[in-house]
Amino acid sequence: MSEQSPRPDLLSAIEVIEDQPLASRADAYAGLHEELTRLLDGAGGIGETRRDRP
User: Fold this and answer.
1) 51 and 15 in contact (C-beta within 8 Å)?
2) Distance between CA 36 and CA 7 in Å, rounded?
3) Which of 24, 25, 30, 44 could crosslink 48 through cysteines, CB 3.0-4.6 Å?
4) Spatial contact of 42 and 5, defined as CB atoms under 8 Å apart
């Protein structure tokens, strides 16, 4: 999934992870966490654009 098309439905993503075997869930949740962190780190504040950030 690219950073320019945010995950359309977080709940669906979690449901997909929960349907996986237990041994696979930790890695899937870690990947989801990394993706959300990248999206949030790039979001900036209200009214702030990426050009405004150092």
Assistant:
1) no
2) 9
3) 44
4) no
Q: What is the pLDDT of residues 2-42, one digit of tens each?
A: 444 555 688 999 999 999 999 899 999 999 999 889 888 88
- What is the per-residue pLDDT for 9? 83
Cβ partners under 8 Å of residue 13, min gap 6 = 7, 32
Q: Using CA atoms, how far apart are residues 21 and 50, in angstroms rounded to an integer?
A: 39
Residue matched to tokens 């702030």: 48
Comparing CA positions, the residue from 46, 13, 8, 44 lying closest to residue 29 is 13
Supply the DSSP symbol for 50.
G
